[in-house]
Amino acid sequence: MDEAPTPIRVTVNGDAHEIPPSLTVDDLLDRFGLDRRHTAVERNRVLVPRAAFSTTEVESGDVLEIVTLVGGG
After folding, report:
1. Which one, of 73, 67, 23, lies nearest residue 42 by Cα?
2. Phi, psi (5° rounding) for residue 4?
3. How many helices (H) and strands (E) in the chain?
4. Which of 14, 31, 13 is closest to 22 using CA atoms?
5. Sign of CA dihedral 45, 36, 38, 70
6. Are 13 and 65 in contact (CB under 8 A)?
7. 41 near 64, Cβ under 8 Å?
8. What is the pLDDT of residues 36-70, one digit of tens each?
9. Cross-strand pairs, 17
10. pTM of this structure
11. How far out from the chain centre does Cα 38 lie?
12. Is the distance from CB of 17 to CB of 68 less than 8 angstroms?
């Protein structure tokens, strides 16, 4: 019988979250229902280029800041 993978702990916008291991930034944005075209992500104080969202894995202990850009006037 296979055991479920142990969740990892990360901080997103100041709040602690437990997520499955091996998620990419893209996966994380999907979990939060965010549109990556209008989102900026900082991981451990380093901006993640949008082109790297699908290849950047979120690791235990990461601190992420996710900012959604909103237009208007």
Report:
1. 67
2. -65, 145
3. 1, 5
4. 31
5. negative
6. yes
7. yes
8. 889 999 999 999 999 999 999 999 999 999 999 87
9. 10
10. 0.87
11. 14
12. no
Separation CA 28–CA 69 (nearest Å): 17
Provide the pLDDT for residue 1.
59
User: Residue 68 is encoded by which pair of tokens?
Assistant: 């959604």
What are φ and ψ of residue 36, in 5° steps?
-65, -20
List the structure tokens of 52: 């790297």
Are the CB atoms for 41 and 7 separated by under 8 Å?
no
Residues constituting the chain: 73
Q: Give the integer Cα–Cα distance in Å for 20 and 58.
A: 10
Q: Cα separation of 30 and 12, whole Å?
A: 14
> How far is residue 52 from each of residues 4, 22, 73, measured CA to CA in Å?
27, 15, 30
Nearest to 41 by CA among 57, 32, 33, 53: 53
